[in-house]
Amino acid sequence: MFTVPTTMRAIVQGSDPPGKQILSTIAVPEPRPDEVLVRVHAVAINPCDWKMPSRFPTPGASSGSDFAGVVVRLGSAVAATPGLGIRVGDRVSSAVHGANPVDPTTGSFAEYVCAVAALTWKVPSSMSFDDAAAIGGCGIGTAGLALFAPDTMGLRFEAEDDDYQLLDGPSSASAPRKPFVLVYGGSTATGTMAIQLLKLHYGAEKVFDHRSPTCVADIKDYTRGTLRYVLDIITDARSVAVCEAVIGRGGGRYVGLEALPEDVLAGKGVRSRSVKWNWVLGISLVGRGEALEEPYRFEFNQERRDWGENWFRHLVQDVVDRGLIKPHPPSVRPGGLASVPEGVQMLEKGQVRGEKLVYHIAD
């Protein structure tokens, strides 16, 4: 019988300089009632894995978000939760809020990690841990929250003939139309995940080069001036300007993945007053609230937690089981856990293009 050890290797933040990620030996965490303890087999690297330590340096805090592994222990409430069906020995994947100053023991860059059971998905037997970690929870959770939560973009899926169709807005007696949705930054890991969710296959309907001087005109021409929905993966000054310019005269909804200035959120200093501006933090799906510095602070939100559980337990699990979602191309790097900080630095420096860095914890 496998015995969970009391200590483990993990990547944590050092103090010299603040936020530097180092290999250390720490205690194996105990799962909360709604969590599972997972023996980690593979992890994938995301922008949040360098942004969190950079913005909120916390010596000793564990790092890492996306992971895949095997459940080795259940929290006290997991077995009794209706519909979960998670057991010791299950292969699972998800993401956690690593490098968190409020919860410093949680991070996936470790031999073991605690994760909310209802926000995990079961890895099919035909899928490798590499692919599972590359799908993880960060990209598919953040993209889902931005596109389909009722308080963000508010798009919706409906099942039709054992398939899904994307519809515009709430149900109505009239036939709904399939909307145009612009994903700015579609070649990124989260961008490719968003595109797959929108089309439920790999690839966009039309690709535009953001470096082209005619980019705005090309998008407006293709959408015939009717574009209403924009997901901005990049969320910098240029991307916000382009996204605002291509939304049709009738207005629409913009959702970014970084904090927007208050004047933009209020519709000041921008051309269109009919655009609803918003931005999301994928970690808010956990719903516990985070006492981070503004503008990243958010309160406990049961509705968001409920939405996140439904998203992962039903839609994500279904599209994974049916092979409708593919990972951003995983690139398995050598060196195991000890080499993860090098991969984080590569991503921070912009040295990763068109692939997802994946590491085997046991290597």
From TrEMBL:
Gene3D superfamilies: Medium-chain alcohol dehydrogenases, catalytic domain (3.90.180.10), NAD(P)-binding Rossmann-like Domain (3.40.50.720). It comes from the Eukaryota. The keyword Oxidoreductase applies. Pfam families: ADH_N. Transmembrane segments: none annotated. Belongs to the zinc-containing alcohol dehydrogenase family. Keywords: NADP, Nucleotide-binding, Oxidoreductase. This is Zinc-binding dehydrogenase family. GO terms for molecular function: nucleotide binding; oxidoreductase activity, acting on NAD(P)H. Residues 21-358 form the Enoyl reductase (ER) domain.
